[in-house]
Design goal:
mainly alpha; 6 helices; elongated; PME_Inhibitor; Pectinesterase_inhib_dom
Length: about 190
């Protein structure tokens, strides 16, 4: 009786082993995102946005590209929202309208910088890696500066529009800040081997 039980247990353990290996491999992208986001400026936001977005991330570069893509997508949405808001002029002061128009321009520039950075990350080459990473970091940093500059125009503006723009831009800036962190992390991890 003991022998068949032993054989049954051995069979079960051996037959389940491949499935546990598959389960661990399917968690790999999630674990990569988690380990990448843990020290980001906004780790919960990083984990939340990238877990939903990243798909089959196999490398830190995949995570960095996903982070820039998320930032780019949000920047486009905020830019579109603010552009539409700028076209509605009824009851708005000149200062408010000017701040809104300037913000739209700043976000257009931010989108351009994020697009350049994403393109650079999609075409990394080992012999030009450091130069490309410097470009990507510079462009995402510039995008973050444009986002911050957008808010500067609203310092002397009060009201609902200011609060709405501040909420939208602050959220965008947090996502962009996380993208910059993940690019810097990618650069530093690769740089250790150089």
């Amino acid at each position: 009786m003991a022998l068949p039980l032993c054989i049954l247990i051995t069979f079960l353990v051996c037959s389940l082993f491949p499935y546990s290996s598959v389960a661990r491999n399917s968690d790999m992208p999630h674990n990569l995102v988690r380990s990448s986001c843990i020290h980001a400026n906004y780790p919960d936001l990083c984990l939340r946005t990238l877990t939903a977005y990243v798909g089959p991330a196999k490398t830190p570069n995949d995570v960095a590209k996903a982070a820039v893509s998320v930032s780019l997508s949000r920047a486009r949405k905020v830019s579109e929202y603010l552009t539409n808001l700028a076209h509605i002029r009824n009851g708005r002061s000149g200062r408010e309208q000017g701040a809104l128009s300037d913000c739209v321009d700043q976000l257009t520039d931010s989108v351009d910088q994020l697009k350049k950075s994403l393109s650079e990350l999609q075409h990394l080459r080992s012999r030009t890696f450091r130069w490309q990473m410097s470009n990507a970091e510079t462009w995402v940093s510039a995008a973050l500066t444009y986002e911050d500059t957008c808010l500067d125009g609203f310092q002397k503006v009060d009201g609902k529009i200011k609060m709405d723009v501040k909420r939208q831009i602050t959220n965008l800036a947090k996502v962009t800040s996380n993208a910059l962190y993940l690019i810097t992390r990618l650069d530093e991890s690769r740089g250790k081997g150089s």
